[in-house]
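Chapter summary example.
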Amino acid sequence: MWTGLARCLSRVKPGLHGLRLLQKATRAGHLPVQDPVAPGVSRWHQTAAAPLPEGVNSRIRRVRALDGERLVSVQWEDGSSSLYPFVWLRDNCQCPHCFLRSARARSLLLTELDVDTGVDRVLLTEPTKVSVIWPDQHISEFDADWLKKRCFSPSARQKQQMELFLNDRHYWGSELQIPTASFEEVLTDDKAAYAWLAALRRVGIVYLKGAPVEQGQVARLSERIGYLRLTFYGHTWQVQDKADANNVAYTSGKLSLHTDYPALHYPPGVQFLHCIRQAQAGGESEVVDGFHAANRLRAENPEAFRILTSLRVDFTDTGADYCDFSVQSKNCIIDVDCDGQVVRINYNNATRDSVLDVPLDQVQPFYSALKAFVELMCRPESTVTYHMKPGDVVTFDNWRLLHGRRSYVSGPGDKRHLEGAYLDWDEVMSRLRILERAIRGES
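The structure predicted for these 443 residues follows.
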């Protein structure tokens, strides 16, 4: 059932062993990555040594202290070399005094760290061990594999960040075939759960089939990861048309493309929607890859992209549900990181406040920029449309995807019913790392 996920995993870059197991199990195919690196992202020329085969430890040929540069130089048996600052080595001493192994946490206080420390001696005690003797005769011992994994070369750092955060993305438009998996397999099989979450990270949306047609399934699914994100609408919430609705989602009208909860400064990262009962007519769901759309806007209309990544917009949400609430936030429509990469979309036309805290001469440019972005997302080539059936669960990245719904008609006593829930990306990424270690056989 999770063969559809295999095609989405071919460029996900977890630890090599975990990926090989998954590729073997799923007979992974390949999807192209369509978007170029954002302008301003560094292009490094330095290269790290090729990864060692599984089960082979890194081995060191020579170590020496470069006192003038305050660096330890490590020459590896494979011909590559790495440099490690004295201060970083002292800060990361692995001895019981400096590191609490049971918590995997540093015990050494920064107030006790001499940031200008030298070294007394650096010794290669065996091909896989380096000992550093500090001026106060404290001894730090470092394993070769541990050091190599933390090499400061640009390529090694990039590889490490990719393994930690799985930031490789597959960008898409209307051609996307939504990856699909079995709800029950995801709950019971670690490889299926890993494939689901890795595809969710890379593609932004995964469909799960075969959930029981009753409330409580999104909570079951969340327990596979960790715990639900509680919001003012509760741990879970029922999407049904209601009289005096306290949210536009609780009507039968059309919902325009949006992300959920930009009225919070930290919106939920992942959303689950479980179809319990579908409408008699209408109710089709629509999704757009907001990251891909934002990158296209950057290419087609750089000024609109600049405005939407720099002006902070007011959002608001007031009412009563799980409890009464009055929330207010200021968010850019498009969030980018320090390298210019798009990392979050914050847009919900329903909760965009009438308060617009921008200079008067920037009001018209803001509206023009926002209209350009919305029109780009509403192009037929940007949108994927699907129709949920009872027992279907759609899981998607709320920071990346914008989702909408066409209007629908329900009969008396037979209302369309979806149950929804949120999680944060921190919990999802935590489970991804744990599942990879489980697949790899690590503790």
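To summarize the output: The chain is about 25% helix and 25% strand.
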